[in-house]
Amino acid sequence: MDRHVELGRTDPEIASLVRAEEELQQDTLRLIPSENYVSAAVLEATGTVLTNKYSEGYPGRRYYEGQQNVDPIENIARERAKSLFGVDHANVQPYSGSPANLAVYLAFARPGDTVLGMALPSGGHLTHGWGVSATGTWFRGVRYGVRADTGRTDLDEVRDVALRERPRLIFCGGTAVPRTVDFAAFAEIAREVDAILVADVAHIAGLIAAEVHPSPVPHVDVVSTTTHKTLRGPRGAMLMCRAEHAKAIDKAVFPGLQGGPHNHTTAAIAVALREAATEDFRAYARQVVANAKRLGEELAARGFELVSGGTDTHLLLVDLTRRGVPGKVAARALDRAGIVVNYNTVPFDTRSPFDPSGIRLGTPALTSRGVGVEDMASVAGWIDRVVGGSEAEEARVRVEVREFLARFPAPGLAV
């Protein structure tokens, strides 16, 4: 059934592209770790009449009338977040992950203050004080990395830099970190230098909710996360914190950085949080990790070099230096073969971020389709055939991928 009849009548050009994207998401193997498939319920919530509402402020303290339905929705989302993650306070209004992190700066720091975060080539995020980000322009960013011998976070370096630089904020977590984050160790360092510790769990929030990754909540001051990726919700974000920081966080989000929240997104977040509290979701998260581990093993058996030697989470970082194929070249070849990844820097990369040495893979989306560990040998085999292979091989793999995915309907898609 075509769900876009009215859109097709009003704007055939956009409707055509939306349908094309549905088909693309159906017949390509999506291995970008930050992407997923939301449920039909989450998708439906994002398209409700709540998009018509303006609701500056917080429940019970709005600057607009007519909030008798919106206030309960936001309260439900906040309470579900608090229950699922075991936090004192939750703010579900941030528009996305980067604005959420900016709100943390506004709440606790002043321009020019020092912030310590993981270096981007080591797996950190732009908003952890990297130079090209506003956070690296308005604040003094200092960095830690990973050990050359293990590819894992160098906690000795974290402590040394923290003692030397005395940061106001310390970020742990990142965007390409395949190993478990030691929140307790970061907390010890933060206490030693009297810093606010922020866990950016955007990638692993769903794994934390399902208890397949340790929770940062007992150790950190603030938890920042997006609501998509492994949490399998809409494109949004949340900030969670101890009760003592609730006022500062809420004030930083509104009126500090934002106006009215996106109420349709808030509703979809609430739906996703309800789904994440189920045993089905916990089983899903366990399968995500199991699939990632097996995919890593299968790739390693085919000669691929995995940063840190594997994964504890949903993602793999693959260094293609020894293969002699740049990351961008590999990613584009895989895309032509129906396997969607992103090119990515690797620790100690000698190439530029726009033309790096690695690719980043993740298993959230394929796991949402019901693909299991028994299928990871096929996935690894296709990647092996395409990276450094011929255009003819890409075409053959494209056919095989499309046929394979026909067995695994994508959640929320009509095609």
TrEMBL record:
SUPFAM superfamilies given in the database record: PLP-dependent transferases
Top EC category: transferase
Pathway: Amino-acid biosynthesis; glycine biosynthesis; glycine from L-serine: step 1/1; One-carbon metabolism; tetrahydrofolate interconversion
Tagged with keyword Transferase: yes
MF (Gene Ontology): glycine hydroxymethyltransferase activity; methyltransferase activity; protein homodimerization activity; pyridoxal phosphate binding
Pfam families registered for this protein in UniProt: SHMT
Superkingdom of origin organism: Bacteria
Annotated InterPro entries: PyrdxlP-dep_Trfase, PyrdxlP-dep_Trfase_major, PyrdxlP-dep_Trfase_small, Ser_HO-MeTrfase, Ser_HO-MeTrfase-like, Ser_HO-MeTrfase_PLP_BS, SHMT-like_dom
Binding of (6S)-5,6,7,8-tetrahydrofolate, residues: L120, G124, H125, L126, E244, S352, P353, F354
Cofactor(s) demanded: pyridoxal 5'-phosphate
Catalysed reaction, written as an equation: (6R)-5,10-methylene-5,6,7,8-tetrahydrofolate + glycine + H2O = (6S)-5,6,7,8-tetrahydrofolate + L-serine
PROSITE patterns for this protein: SHMT
Role noted for this protein: Catalyzes the reversible interconversion of serine and glycine with tetrahydrofolate (THF) serving as the one-carbon carrier. This reaction serves as the major source of one-carbon groups required for the biosynthesis of purines, thymidylate, methionine, and other important biomolecules. Also exhibits THF-independent aldolase activity toward beta-hydroxyamino acids, producing glycine and aldehydes, via a retro-aldol mechanism. Thus, is able to catalyze the cleavage of L-allo-threonine.
NCBIfam families: PRK00011.1
Subunit structure: Homodimer.
Record protein name field: Serine hydroxymethyltransferase
Native source species: Embleya hyalina
Gene that encodes it: glyA_3
